[in-house]
Amino acid sequence: MPRDNTSRVESAASLPGTRRLSLQALPRRFYARDTELVARDLIGRVLECTRDGVTCRGLISETEAYLGEHDPACHAAVGRTARTAGLYGPPGTAYVYFIYGMHWCVNAVTRAEGLPSAVLIRGVLPLHGVEAMRRRRVEGRTPPLASARSSRVVADQALADGPGKLCRAFGIDGPTHHGVDLVRGTALRILRGAPVDDARVMVTPRIGISKAVDWPLRWVLRPGQ
DNA sequence: TCAACGATTTTCT
DNA sequence: GAAAATCGTTGAG
Predict the structure, then answer these.
(1) What is the DSSP track for chain A?
(2) How far is the CA of A157 from the C1' of C4 (A)?
(3) What is the pLDDT, as a whole number, of residue A138?
(4) Which domains does chain A have, with CATH numbers?
């Protein structure tokens, strides 16, 4: 276990507007609120995953809210099934699902147990464990994706700027992380980090969906200052 | 049992 | 900008 895993703050001086980030886990009550509030408030927080003795951390830069059975784009729109059962779990747990036959995506379950809603974490800015992220992004490739062209260096900022990419980079997958407690667990947590001002956050419709395409439920950290 | 689709990413043209 | 890669989940028959 890396020694710095026990530190309470982490410097992120290279990230505009963020200097010292709290490394305490967000409390349960953070998640037990309206999903839109949680999605907005997760911007600037820190996703942490410890796997194979390596801890990776990233500043959450993009989220989407999925509101429950009445949200046509939410998995819970089909009701409670084996797949969606995790959405009905306690707030502050992880809902991890497999998509397009090759990608894992990670969500934080929100509101109260029995109310199926969650926040999809779509992107983070790497803070810690960048070497492990780079290695996983390359190792995970299979032919023909592992062509000579694809071996080019990926910019650090692009290591985890999509929901599938961040799971690959952080080593997050369903068998390991679906249903884990983000509050009291150790494998996968979300830390307090540093809340950001509204001026630094954009709101847009969700992307990559075919239903409720105009609902403004995506929050993005503005690049730069 | 089977076909269609999907909260995506990457490569090639 | 288009298309491939790839498989779990869902719903129809």
Answers:
(1) --GGGG-SEEE-TTSTT--EEEEEEPPHHHHSS-HHHHHHHHTT-EEEEEETTEEEEEEEEEEEEE--TT-TTSGGGG-S-TTGGGGGS-TTBEEEEEETTTEEEEEEE-SSTTS--EEEEEEEEEEE-HHHHHHHHHHT--TTTTSTGGGSPPPGGGTTSSHHHHHHHHT--HHHHTT-BTTT-SSEEEEEE----GGGEEEE--SS-SSSTT---EEEEPS--
(2) 26
(3) 82
(4) 9-221 (3.10.300.10)
